[in-house]
Amino acid sequence: MIYDVITLFPDIIKSYCSQSITKRAIERNIITVQTHNPRDYTLDKHKKVDDIPYGGGDGMVLMCQPIFDCYEAIEKKEDCVFIMLSAKGEKFNQNTALELSQKSQIILLCGHYEGFDERIRLGLKPKEISIGDYILTGGELGALVLIDSISRNIENYLGKTNCALYDSFSNGMEGCLEYPQYTKPREYKGMKVPEILLSGNHQKIEQYRKQMSYEITKKYRPDLLQ
Question: Second label for 123, Cα 20 to 30 Å away, from 6, 38, 56, 165?
């Protein structure tokens, strides 16, 4: 999978991707993360990429030309998906992550300031995605959420394991939240590990986990069961 991130703040993306599982996946060539700065494509000598909105109003709007030229300079694969991080977009979920993980290239456009010149939407026709009903300063955090979530579904991203199948919201647990997890010690401050998990009976453990997953989902997110 190749991720191309169009961003005015590439160091935010690079910093996150230089850590933990994402770093190891990049080193093993499971994913590639590349950044592209629209400032490198502006025709303005001061590297300006935004201006005041026509009709008045607060804030600044990202200009067409640097975004168009930056996007068009990226080499694209046949199944490339172009995504704009936007409050207007469809809400991101696990099903979308699974669908996008089947692609070989995703281009992510991060916004800032008061948003994009509308002609960027009209001319480049991106798929618009929102990570939630709240406002962020820029799209970089949203882009990183997508990179992390999508990549977990790519073969070998997590190593030789299929543990992502059993995460909350995944198909492995039928869309339910994940069951409780325990590790050593067996008892801590009077709280004990459930005996069933120490039994060695894997069939009963699996049944217990499915039941706990269902009960937790029913308590905290009953909407998922619908």
Answer: 56
